[in-house]
Amino acid sequence: MTAAEKYSAALNLYRSTGMSISEISASCGVSRKAFANYIQRNHRELMYRRHGIDPSASERKLWAAKGQKPATRAKYRRAVEACDSEEYIDLNISQIARLFGVDASGLSNQLKTHYSEILERRENERQRLGIADNHRRGARVSTQEAYAEPLRLLIETDMTIEEAAEACAVSFTGLRQYILHYHKELVAARESRRAEGKKKPGIGRMSGNGSIRRPRAAEAEKYAEAVELYRSTSLTAREICAITCHDSRAFGNHMRMWHQRLIFERNGLTMPENSSDRPGLGGIPHYSSAVSGKYAPAIEVLEAGEQSVESVARRFGFIPEVFRAYLKKHRPELWKSMGMTELPNGRRVSRRSTGKYSAAIELYRTTPEPLKSIAERLGINYNSIGGFLRRNMPEIIEAHNALAASQEK
């Protein structure tokens, strides 16, 4: 049976009667939610027509997510206008509600929530005319005392109204009505935080639906051991999943969703401030703690300045090209010290060799002492420094020879 055949009788009732969707669903034996979805997807023009909205209008929603529905506004419109009219100033709210055939509590709630300025004007005018009943308006003192603590929680934290009511053992619906009627500034502030949370979600902060953005308790407990291993060891995510018997893809999704800051820290980075909770590592040079631990001994040898990058890489069993790439990206200051430099005469030489031979070269340039004597005294290989000078600094050899000849004379 197709959906059109299944809902044909219910659709005829929806088109030709004023019955509600709930009444039609009960009468035809179909699911209310499924029938409502069917109308929204396939017969939106009927839905717009039923609510008095032009189907060709650009507005696609029947009403806003917050505020009065058009049907509610139409139901209480005449009674609300009467409350704001001097013609009915001698009547109280209950009398006006009975006069226009609406519920007195419902009218009172509509005025408190959406037309509080009418209530204020009406009360001031009745007092001016001397016909006020002298009853105290607003929340009772006992109500204010009962809701003081949950109100503080809602102001100072991102708890939902339901969570605050549960924490303080008060009625959820009562607290919600109290906030809506008497603390509209708090409602506006929370709406602003929700809008901000929708644009820039953050773990531990209010999200777009008003709840705190955090993992479910069961999920957090499930991955607690794996997250701790990720934080305290250099094991890879795959190795951690093998130990804890978790699916590596599911664990990766959990980490990216709820522990992005930990991922940044493990990769030697600082998560950008005021960013969303999942900025990602794309385009940012990073490395894992396992990789940094792998190269740490080799880097210590390089920093001692005794061997070249290639010799150190081969000594520790690394591929020289990969080790060089790691140094260029993650240890640029060390890489620069291991690279080439240009001498005053224009020749390019190893920076490491220049630093290694600098003291000996300076002595050779400024004194008549033989190079072999200088090399032995400073613990440098004579053939190595001799070859370095002949290849790259022949002018220093000439200067030394001239100095030595002048000393002999």
Brief description of this entry?
Helix content is 65%, strand content 1%. It is mainly α and 409 residues long. The termini are far apart.
The number of distinct helices, counting runs of at least 4 residues, comes to: 27
The topology string of helices and strands comes to HHHHHHHHHHHHHHHHHHHHHHHEEHHHH
**Terminal residue distance:** 119 Å
Shape field? elongated
- Widest beta sheet: strand line-up: 1-2
User: Approximately what portion of the residues adopt beta-strand conformation?
Assistant: under 5%
The whole-number mean of residue pLDDT values reads: 81
Which percent bin holds the helix content?
A: 55-70%
Gyration radius, in Å: 40 Å
Which consecutive residue ranges, at least 5 long each, have pLDDT under 50? Answer: 282-286
| Topology, number of strands | 2
Q: For the report, how would you describe the main beta sheet?
A: 2 strands, antiparallel
Sheet/helix structural class: mainly alpha
Could you explain the architecture of this structure?
Strand 1 and strand 2 (348-350) form a beta hairpin. The protein has helices at 3-6, 8-16, 21-28, 32-42, 44-50, 70-83, 93-99, 104-114, 116-129, 141-146, 148-156, 161-167, 172-182, 184-199, 217-222, 224-232, 237-244, 248-258, 260-266, 289-304, 309-315, 320-330, 332-338, 351-366, 371-378, 382-392, 394-408; strands at 340-342, 348-350. The termini are far apart. The protein has 409 residues and is mainly alpha-helical. It is elongated and about 130 Å long. A two-stranded antiparallel ribbon has the order 1-2. Mean pLDDT is 81; it is low at 282-286. The chain contains 27 helices and 2 strands. The relative contact order is 0.03.
